[in-house]
Amino acid sequence: MRTAPPAPTAAKAPAVRDALRNVRRTVGMQLIAPLDARPSALGSSAAVDPVLAATVVALVGFGVVMVFSASAVQATVQYHDPQFFLKRQTAYAIAGLLAMWLVSRIDYHRFYKLTYPVLVAVGTLLLLCVVGFGHSGGGAARWLSVGPVHIQPAEMAKVALVIWLAYSLAKKAERVKTFTVGFLPHLIVAGIFMVLCMKQPDFGSAVVLLLLTFTMLFVAGAKVGYILGASILGGVFGAVAIRFREYRYERYLAWLHMDEHRQDLAYQPFQSVMSFGSGGTTGLGIGRGLQTLYLPEAHTDFVAAIVGEELGFLGVASLCAVYLLLVSRGVRAALRAPDDFGSFLAFGLSTMFGVQALVNLAVAFAILPTKGLTLPFVSFGGSSLLVNSVAAGILLNISRQSTPVAPRAALGPPIPKASADPEPAPGEAFA
Q1: Average pLDDT of the segment spanning 189-194
Q2: 413, CA 20 to 30 Å: which among 27, 112, 309, 310?
Q3: What are the sequence ranges of the domains in the chain?
Q4: Which are the contacts of 160, defined by CB distance < 8 A and separation ≥ 6?
């Protein structure tokens, strides 16, 4: 007959309370969710993942080189300075690397209590773009002008949504499997951000936000049936948004019949495919590409096409391998994070990098219609580079605090799960 364990002594009680203060429960992936995510001593002292850091720095440096190669002709014609975009991208790169270093020194647990201020601030910036304060470019009001600086809130929205989803999913733990508490609130918040992006209009960013939400819900353990049903519903809304918005539908038809529209609506994707084709296996060499004469805005959304022409199939394959390495090291940091908040945060940011790179490359190959998404760390643009650098800094800080995955037996017996309440308390769904 098993006897009950002895009661803890008075001396041990404070130590036990301190040990459990930041612990909710052990879940299936052997991760721990913080009740009160407090800064850790390892937040700025331990070493970052060197492979992850080197990968980001390499992508930023490669982006500076490719932006110069892709933009020299346009800069000469438009600004009479072949180094115009090079100088700006170099300044963005320096600022981005500095921001990444600074953020990597800030304990990611501090974002736990900044979740709602960040979410509301970014939502306000998106709203300002919609109500008339947005700066138009390419037919869309996606930028806010602050003097000479142009801010693109849609880029910030991706990181803000990931931070909030990580906070909410870590806090709800097992209740994420429920519909009213664990699924619907996340879909509503993501839907608000998506609607604000669509109003700019920015269809590509809205798609990325939806994919981020579904991926993080799946990783957190939400029911696959809920995700599948919402995916079907999202697909229907996406089809309606394309069919009943004239310019989107025309662009879609031009993409389907690219040969017939290669001189008008499909001119850009057609020239992009030509760039990949002319590069062959090894490419023409850096600075020797000719498609920069014909491909509009080659240094922004279609910089991958210039990579294909100048570095060939091997260059594009190597670039894809680098992005795969970036995502895999981010997932590694997620699996080794000390708590659920860090794990979900790392998964979300890694997914953000992977989805944006995948969609951008698919557009450049004309596998998807034009979306207007940048290639992370490589495309020209200050907002994209700075936001991605901050996201990379958060990932690096999570890697500072990573712990090796311990065998299941070494973790000891699991903590009994708390019984679920039949109904959520008021406000719990969005807490």
Answers
A1: 94
A2: 112
A3: 41-404
A4: 118, 119, 121, 122, 123
